[in-house]
C-alpha cells in the first residue's frame, strides 16, 4: 500500500506558488524599466543601383597575381553615402570568390566621388550597389 505525506506536498505547493509570484513581479518590474525606443523619423535609407559620379570613374586595377592565376569574377560592393554624397562605408556584399579581386574593387570604389542621392527632391543618405566585373580578355 502506498502512503503519501500530504503535509509535505502542501508545503511544496506553497513554495512553488510563492516563487512563481516573485518571478512574475520581478519580470513586470524589469519590463517597466525598459526604455521603449520609438523608430526615428526619416530613418529609411534607400538602396539603389543608380550610380551618379562626380568626375571620372577610375576603373579598378586588375591585380597581376589574379591575372597570372586566371582569376575572374563579379564583385558586388555596397556603399553607404551621406546626404552630401560622401562615402561613409563600403562593403563587399557578394564576393567574386577571390580576395584579390574583392580588394581591388573596394580600393577603386573608395577613390570615387558621388553626387548626393535625391529622395523626393531632397538630398538623402543612400546605399548604392555597384557591380564590378573582372574578366580576362
Description:
This protein is α+β, with helices and mostly antiparallel strands and 137 residues long. The chain contains 3 helices and 8 strands, in the order αββαββαββββ. The chain has a 4-stranded mixed β-sheet, with helices on one face. It has a two-stranded antiparallel sheet with strand order 2-5. A two-stranded antiparallel sheet has the order 6-7. It is elongated.
Task: Give a short summary of the structure.
33% of the residues lie in helices and 28% in strands. It contains three helices and eight strands, in the order αββαββαββββ. The longest helix is centred in the first third of the chain and has 28 residues.
Element layout with pairings:
Layout: H1 6-33, E1 47-48, E2 53-54, H2 64-68, E3 73-81, E4 87-94, H3 99-110, E5 113-114, E6 117-119, E7 122-124, E8 126-134
Parallel strand pairs: 1-8
Antiparallel strand pairs: 2-5, 3-4, 3-8, 6-7
CATH topology (level 3) name of the domain at 47-134: TolA/TonB C-terminal domain
The largest sheet has its strands arranged as: 1-8-3-4
The CATH homologous superfamily of the domain at 47-134 is called TonB
Q: Give the amount of beta strand, in percent.
A: 25-35%
Helix content: 25-40%
Q: How many E-type strands?
A: 8
CATH architecture field of the domain at 47-134: 2-Layer Sandwich
CA radius of gyration is 30 Å
Q: Tell me the major beta sheet.
A: 4 strands, mixed
Mean pLDDT: 77
Structural class by SSE content = alpha+beta
What overall form do the CA principal axes indicate?
Answer: elongated
Spell out the key features of this protein:
137 residues, alpha+beta, TolA/TonB C-terminal domain, 4-stranded mixed beta sheet, two-stranded antiparallel sheet, 8 strands, 33% helix, elongated, disordered N terminus
Amino acid at each position: 500500500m502506498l502512503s503519501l505525506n500530504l503535509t509535505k506536498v502542501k508545503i511544496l505547493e506553497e513554495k512553488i506558488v510563492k516563487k512563481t509570484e516573485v518571478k512574475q513581479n520581478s519580470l513586470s518590474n524589469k519590463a517597466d524599466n525598459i526604455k521603449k525606443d520609438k523608430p526615428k523619423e526619416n530613418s529609411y535609407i534607400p538602396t539603389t543601383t543608380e550610380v551618379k559620379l562626380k568626375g571620372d570613374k577610375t576603373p579598378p586595377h586588375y591585380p597581376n597575381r589574379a591575372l597570372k592565376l586566371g582569376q575572374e569574377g563579379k564583385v558586388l560592393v555596397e556603399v553607404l553615402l551621406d546626404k552630401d554624397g560622401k562615402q561613409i562605408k563600403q562593403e563587399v556584399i557578394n564576393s567574386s570568390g577571390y580576395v584579390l579581386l574583392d580588394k581591388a574593387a573596394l580600393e577603386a570604389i573608395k577613390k570615387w566621388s558621388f553626387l548626393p542621392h535625391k529622395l523626393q527632391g531632397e538630398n538623402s543618405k543612400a546605399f548604392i550597389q555597384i557591380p564590378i566585373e573582372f574578366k580576362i580578355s
